């Protein structure tokens, strides 16, 4: 019989309401509150432990809470982890998302939660955690728990998992291709969709446009004349031997190259390996993609304080957002160490 | 990548030809380049013209780094 | 302007003393065929190998696919390419169905080349597993691009085109088993009954990404990069006026075979007079600079509007920066009141989590999605490889790689492969066969 662990907050553990919201994390052997319902609903696992944490403790001391809970779990055997259901409770939803994500990253087990559609935790965590739509309040406890358990059973039994729509959890923005020979060819689907659109009838697009997300605008460089500037590029400019073997497409590797002694990048010494565009111009004069010559001129003139010793490079075509983010995250410590104040990124 | 670097606190300017792409992926400061295979220097023009264009647009990017903005901004270039 | 496609349904292809088509069997005199192909001195060695549906064969690197045809009036099948320029899209062209001629590198692959498995799981990922493939497997003297990732593949592609005409000529004088007729009357002179139906244009965006000539799709032999959008009769596309290039990552590619058989055009023809008034094709392209994309969108929208289109189907041969053209035209068409449905593939990454198109727009609210170029695919070894398997990992094909920390090389020692859907030959079938879509997981 496989083993499951459930995370709940102080209220559902019966410890108390708001006044106990900073209850420190603890783990109890056996079933507490909602874990009874979960244990009953699960066919392929038993709930062995219940983790309890106050919503405010998690909210205000997230890192510590996670650290403590992961430590509790270190010596426990478990195959799957659940959190909630958290209904419409924002702090609880956030806590469920945080702990599920951490448990998944550390222990690699499937993590499942449940939240009402308006719970902010949904949009924050649906990509990393399988979250089932839940009711507004504890009145939906039984129903929501059953949904989590049914899916959990499926996963534990190694059954084939269908699309988000088929399984019933929140669409995560994870899109994969599916071959379906019962489906009409694209040409037929296209004409049919057009006829519906022309007639003002309802149709279903196969590519719903996702919402974009923005990052907070960083404070501008205070004084350019004393600032250190770095160049980052996705145009794939590398030394001709491509020493770090950066891929020409779908890159997972990046490099940083010392240009501190150079006034410009020379063709024949540097080149581009980016397969998604005509390389002729960049090979002949890499400065058109990594404008070292222009930046050196500004450095000499005193418009900027200095140029970073290195430039940073990878290839953009076909590269996933996840890999690109990771590579940028890896570049950041170097930018910090080098005392960079501002970055110019060139893309092709 | 622009977002990760900006999240870490670095002001950053995206120089790219496909401004709609840069906007969609969420770069806050954008300076247009002239094309994909040759962002800052058209090989069909003279070396002087290429240099002039590159020097100007990189200059706009540097100024953009030091500029305070309220919202996603595409900075104008003269040529 | 009436086009008659006279179809001959090939049951099998074999080699023999005389090139002929009798009772469904196409016989090819291999020596004669190769002699014809090797009239081009740039082809240094060549062979023809047959691959049939269901056989345990893998073909890689595949550069092009062409349906063997001939014109009964003797004109070139590909005007401006394999011969002089004459209008395409009217008169009688004979076609050998169920078969295609493939240009296959004996050794060397390139970015835009792909793979075809004739059986097994891989067969589901390309249309060409369903055809009897006449594979021209050859090597050339094109040293200038031997080790380049981007190749023009000119000798091989032209060789395959010429071979397809040679084979097609076998049925030049014969009576077709079936005749498909394609005719659209002059737009302003159609019956009122037809004029009352919603008017639709098909906007095609063939790839034209390279600045230098030799890599892009061609229209009557003219580089699509050097064009502004123009108006064409759909018959022209069905009849050899448009041919494929060599740059595009292969699952997004429209091979010449795809163009000759364009399912979307055939579907629009079926609907013509019944539910739509099919006006014709607006032939655009996919140039790289932002201004060129914007300019093309201006032309596309103006033509659609001036022609009186109510609706449009928009198809993009590519992903990445071409998505900007796709969205630019989508927006421009919607802005002038032309209701548009787009057909394209996506690039959501191996983890499925990346943004599907590089540019998004709320106006692009009707899209048929044909697949994920990044989808990771594992396939077992096949008994016979036509071409060279190592090319997949070694020569920079868009979906293959030499080494990866997590996944290892694309080509394993036992002949099994791991690759991105990107390299399945014309796998996303955006011109209309695709029975693939994208779903949320």
What does this structure look like?
The complex is a heterotrimer of chains A (348), B (79) and C (441). Chain A is α/β, with parallel strands linked by helices. Chain A has eleven helices and 14 strands. In chain A, the strands form three sheets. A six-stranded mixed sheet of chain A has the order 2-3-1-4-5-6, with helices on both faces. In chain A, helix 1 packs across helix 6. The longest helix of chain A has 18 residues. The radius of gyration of chain A is 26 Å and the shape is globular. Chain B starts with a helix and ends in a 5-residue tail after the last strand. The model of chain B has no long low-confidence stretch (mean pLDDT 92). With 441 residues, chain C is of the alpha/beta class. Chain C is 19% helix and 30% strand. Chain C is built from nine helices and 25 strands. Classes of the chains: A alpha/beta (348), B alpha/beta (79), C alpha/beta (441). At the A-C interface, strand 7, helix 8 and helix 11 of A face helix 6, strand 19, strand 20, strand 21 and strand 25 of C.
Please render the helix and strand layout as text:
The complex is a heterotrimer of chains A (348), B (79) and C (441).
Chain A: E1 2-9, E2 26-29, H1 34-41, E3 45-53, H2 55-60, H3 62-74, E4 80-83, H4 90-107, E5 111-115, H5 121-125, E6 130-133, H6 141-156, H7 164-167, E7 175-179, H8 186-198, E8 228-233, E9 237-239, E10 255-258, E11 270-272, H9 280-284, H10 292-301, E12 306-307, E13 310-313, H11 321-337, E14 342-346
Parallel strand pairs in A: 1-3, 1-4, 4-5, 5-6, 8-12, 8-13, 8-14
Antiparallel strand pairs in A: 2-3, 9-11, 10-13
Helix pairs in contact in A: 1-6, 3-4
Chain B: H1 2-7, E1 12-16, H2 19-25, E2 29-32, H3 47-65, E3 73-74
Parallel strand pairs in B: 1-2, 2-3
Chain C: E1 2-9, E2 12-15, E3 20-22, E4 25-28, H1 30-37, E5 43-51, E6 57-66, E7 69-71, E8 91-97, E9 99-105, E10 114-117, E11 132-140, H2 154-168, E12 178-183, H3 192-195, E13 199-205, E14 218-219, E15 222-223, E16 230-232, H4 234-238, E17 242-243, H5 256-260, H6 263-271, E18 277-283, H7 290-307, E19 311-316, H8 322-335, E20 339-346, E21 367-372, E22 376-379, E23 384-387, H9 391-394, E24 417-420, E25 436-440
Parallel strand pairs in C: 1-8, 2-4, 6-23, 9-11, 13-18, 13-19, 19-20, 20-21
Antiparallel strand pairs in C: 1-12, 3-4, 5-11, 6-9, 6-10, 7-8, 14-15, 14-17, 16-18, 22-24
Helix pairs in contact in C: 1-2, 7-8
């Amino acid at each position: 019989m496989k083993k499951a662990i459930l995370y709940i907050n102080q209220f559902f553990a019966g410890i108390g309401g708001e006044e106990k919201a900073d209850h420190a994390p603890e783990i109890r052997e056996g079933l507490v509150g909602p874990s009874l319902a979960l244990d009953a609903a699960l066919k392929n696992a038993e709930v062995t432990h219940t983790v309890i944490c106050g919503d405010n403790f998690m909210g205000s001391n997230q890192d510590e809470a996670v650290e403590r809970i992961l430590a509790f779990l270190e010596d426990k055997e478990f195959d799957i982890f659940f959190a909630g259901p958290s209904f419409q409770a924002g702090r609880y939803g956030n806590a469920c998302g945080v702990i599920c994500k951490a448990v998944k990253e550390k222990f690699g087990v499937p993590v499942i939660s449940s939240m009402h559609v308006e719970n902010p935790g949904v949009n924050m965590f649906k990509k990393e955690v399988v979250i089932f739509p839940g009711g507004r309040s504890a009145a939906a406890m039984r129903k929501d728990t059953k949904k989590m358990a049914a899916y959990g059973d499926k996963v534990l039994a190694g059954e084939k998992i269908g699309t988000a729509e088929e399984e019933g959890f929140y669409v995560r923005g994870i899109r994969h291709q599916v071959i379906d020979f019962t489906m009409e060819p694209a040409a037929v689907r296209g004409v049919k969709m057009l006829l519906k659109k022309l007639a003002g009838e309802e149709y279903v697009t196969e590519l719903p446009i996702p919402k974009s997300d923005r990052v907070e605008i960083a404070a501008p460089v205070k004084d350019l004349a004393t600032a250190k500037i770095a160049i980052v590029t996705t145009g794939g400019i590398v030394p001709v031997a491509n020493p770090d073997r950066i891929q020409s497409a779908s890159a997972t590797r990046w490099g940083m190259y010392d240009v501190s002694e150079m006034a410009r990048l020379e063709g024949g010494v540097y080149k581009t390996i980016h397969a998604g565009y005509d390389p002729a111009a960049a090979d002949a004069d890499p400065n058109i993609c990594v404008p070292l010559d222009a930046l050196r001129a500004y450095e000499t003139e005193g418009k900027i304080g200095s140029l970073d010793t290195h430039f940073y490079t990878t290839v953009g075509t076909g590269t996933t957002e996840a890999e690109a983010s990771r590579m940028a995250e890896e570049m950041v410590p170097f930018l910090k160490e080098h005392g960079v104040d501002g970055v110019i990124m060139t893309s092709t | 990548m622009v977002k990760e670097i900006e999240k870490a606190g670095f002001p950053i300017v995206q120089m790219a030809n496909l401004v709609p792409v840069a906007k969609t992926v969420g770069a806050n400061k954008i300076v247009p380049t002239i094309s994909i295979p040759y962002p800052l220097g058209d090989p069909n023009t003279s070396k002087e013209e290429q240099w002039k264009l590159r020097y100007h647009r990189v200059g706009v990017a540097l100024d953009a780094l030091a500029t305070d903005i309220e919202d996603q901004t595409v900075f104008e270039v003269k040529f | 302007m009436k086009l008659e496609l006279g179809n001959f349904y090939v049951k099998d292809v074999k080699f023999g003393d005389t090139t002929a088509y009798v009772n469904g069997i196409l016989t090819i005199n291999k020596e004669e065929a190769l002699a014809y192909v090797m009239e081009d001195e740039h082809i240094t060695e060549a062979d023809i190998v047959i691959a049939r549906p269901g056989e345990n064969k893998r073909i890689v690197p595949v550069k092009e696919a062409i349906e063997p045809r001939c014109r009964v009036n003797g004109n070139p099948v590909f005007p401006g390419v394999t011969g002089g320029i004459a209008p395409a899209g009217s008169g009688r062209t004979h076609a050998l169905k169920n078969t295609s001629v493939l240009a296959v590198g004996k050794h060397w692959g390139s970015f835009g080349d792909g793979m075809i498995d004739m059986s097994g799981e891989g067969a589901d990922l390309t249309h060409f597993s369903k055809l009897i493939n006449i594979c021209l497997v050859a090597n050339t003297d094109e040293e200038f691009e031997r080790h380049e990732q981007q190749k023009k593949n000119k000798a091989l592609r032209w060789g395959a085109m010429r071979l397809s005409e040679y084979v097609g000529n076998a049925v030049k004088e014969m009576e077709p088993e079936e005749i498909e007729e394609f005719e659209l009357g002059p737009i302003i002179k159609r019956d009122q009954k037809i004029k009352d139906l919603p008017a639709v244009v098909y906007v095609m965006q063939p790839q034209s990404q390279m600045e230098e000539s030799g890599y892009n799709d061609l229209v009557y032999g003219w580089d699509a990069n050097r064009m502004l959008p123009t108006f064409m009769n759909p018959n022209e596309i069905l009849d050899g006026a448009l041919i494929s290039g060599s740059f595009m990552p292969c699952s997004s590619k429209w091979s010449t075979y795809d163009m000759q058989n364009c399912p979307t055009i055939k579907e629009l023809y079926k609907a013509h007079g019944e539910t739509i008034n099919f006006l014709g094709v607006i032939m655009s392209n996919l140039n790289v600079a932002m201004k060129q994309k914007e300019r093309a969108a201006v032309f596309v929208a103006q033509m659609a509007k001036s022609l009186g289109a109510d609706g449009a189907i928009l198809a993009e041969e590519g992903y990445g920066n071409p998505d900007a053209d796709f969205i630019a035209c989508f927006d421009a068409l919607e802005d002038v009141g032309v209701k548009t449905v787009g057909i394209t593939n996506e690039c959501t990454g191996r983890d499925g989590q990346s943004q599907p198109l590089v540019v998004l727009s709320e106006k692009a609210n009707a899209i048929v999605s044909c697949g994920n170029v990044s989808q990771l695919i594992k396939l077992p070894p096949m008994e016979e490889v036509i071409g060279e398997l190592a090319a997949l990992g070694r020569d920079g094909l868009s979906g293959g790689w030499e080494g990866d920390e997590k996944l290892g090389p694309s080509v394993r020692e036992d002949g099994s492969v791991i690759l991105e859907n990107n390299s399945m030959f014309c796998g996303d079938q955006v011109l209309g066969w695709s029975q693939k879509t994208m779903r949320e997981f």
